[in-house]
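Q: My hope is that you can spare some time for a protein that puzzles me. Underneath my words sits a plain record pairing an amino acid chain with its backbone structure tokens. Those tokens are not coordinates but codes from a learned vocabulary of shapes. Thank you; the sequence and its tokens follow:
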Amino acid sequence: MNTNEQAQTSSHLPAWLAPWLDWRRKRCWLIIAFALYSLAGFFLVPRLVEKQLKAPFAASGRTATVDQVKVNPWLFKLEILGTEIRDTDDVVIFSYDRLFVDFELKSLLRWAWTFREISAQNLYLHEERFQAADTRLGRLLSAFAEAEVSASEAPDEGEAIALPRLIIERLALDRGMFSVRDQTAGNFEATWGPINLSIADLQTLPNRNGQQQMSIETATGGRIDWQGELQLVPFSSRGTVQLTGRSLSDFYRYADHFLPFQISGEGVQIDLNYELALLQGELVASVRDLNASTQGTRLTLDNDEEPLLQLDRVSLAGGTLDWPEQSAGAQSLTIDGMELDVALMPDGDLNLYALLPTTMEPEPVSSGDRDPALDWQVNLGRLELTPALIHLRDEQMTPPLAVDLQDLTLVLRELNNQPGTRMPLALAMTLSSGGRISLDGELGALPAPTLAGAFSLEALSLPVLQPYLETQLQALLTAGQLSMQAQIEHAPDQLLKAGGALQLADLDLRDALEEAPLLGWQLLTLDRFEADLSAASLETSELRFSAPYARLHIDEQRRTNVEDLLVMPADDVPVDEEMALPLERLSIGGIELDGAVLDFSDRSLPLPFAAVIQNLTGQISTLATDSQEAATLDLNGQVNEYGEATITGALRPMALKQQSRIAMIFRNLDMGRLTPYTIQFAGYAIDDGKLDLDLRYEVENSALQGANDIVIRELTLGDKV
């Protein structure tokens, strides 16, 4: 087109527009550049962005779809709508409804990539584990790695990767969602969301802090809140974290697949302040003001319907943690409303053993290795358990023994894991069967458990031990209360040492075969005892019995009623007749009887004899296993109104069935009142008479030997029979 033609064409344009379209003028080229930039920005760039988004996923065998890409080249804004990425099996692994990026030109002034806003709405992320080290994300990253142009483009291993200079004035996630599935854990599935995240002034410039705020809700009704400050270069963060509601429910469900029990809970409340930093490549962390509580925690063994452990509330107050100092602690840990079921199973194992994973094997530790736990300094100001209920059962017994430890309280103070620490301890409980137990002392844990303190039993009811008694003796323990006050001690070289006093009141032991009293007393008092299990020794002061009762009958074969009550072992092997005391040293400082009653009979005599000795009083001298002298027996009592009875003898504690001698002397017995036997003489009944009787018994080789002298005086015969 020549100049004339140009002029002719321009004449058809408005006068104000013609100068702008004159190609010879710079303004014309500016208009062209503006138009091309706008066309490219509004139409070409969105296509390029969409293509670049899809390309890497297509190369890895995945599918990426984008509904729409919007670019405003003049405001430097990018908006991507409806992005979805599907895995090779057509499962959605990533999506969002809207991604918005607002770039600012002041990046040129700051010499840093500056964004007014980067935000995403309804972002969804899905992760799935197929095997131990096989996940969807891992497969995707491996596919990306295989699609790289060349390995030479990767940075050298020793080359540090510097973060770009970046400023994001607002980084936000609105209503995000994260789901996870683990096929190795029984197809465990969980979803967390909506997730809301807001970070203000996030920068990679040195020493610049940003403000972050995040909230996560779980499908089970839990919520996690996080807010504070975040600095990327050098990295540091400080703030607060809070968990509320059923935030741990998904964790409980996941753990169920790996543990032999299930955990459930009504909710948690956890809040803490934290600080994190990287100093010279090392992590420095601290936690302060950690307060946590759980409600309604239940632990149930697999295949059981009733919970093994129930905790109404667990509270931790004033928790702290410091790294790399390796220090952790808390002001207090309180457990309220604990209920625990403890059972000794028929196979001899505790039901609590079922809490341990069957595949767990302890790693061998060299004797010279230091326990890594000791590298940590752990402190707890106070551990309190109140009120607790423990159900105890022994299913080896028939019927099973069952007793509850009620109103159990435990306070342990000044706990730490340093060797040699002694922690004040206070323990108290009552038994459902009757009685109270308490312990006040000090407990040590490292390097080996130690215990020392004052132990007390108050009116402990003994009939609860009936199932154990039945395994040894066919007798019924219908009454009896044990009280004891003792100082106890346990140490690595001291299994148990105890010293104190005890009282056993109102004992009533009955013959289960004849349903008659067998043994009992009103009160047994022991002012002092010293027991040492390591030395297998027991020393006591004098045993004082008040109003004791015993029934001893000898049959025609010179077997006692006590022998008839002994229970034979299940394999029908007779009980070992040897008297094998489990003590290497036994010393009893004598036995005193006051107001005793002995129901005695001997059918092995030529003249069967039976008498009830009343008001039997006297002593048995010291019994000691380390003494060559036998203990002497000297008792005196009364039979009916005018009869007298004297019992003497010698006993050796370690050879009761080998070298025991007892003499029973009866004088002035009224024969007419000797029951339950009807005494006859020359075919006539005896109406009256006096009887003097000397009975001598010796035990040799576990056999009862006897000799007797009988004198009858003032005999009066009755009717012929």
User: Anything to note?
Assistant: Residues 543-570+579-720 form one domain. Residues 60 and 143 are 5 Å apart (CA to CA). The first strand starts at residue 63 and ends at 72.
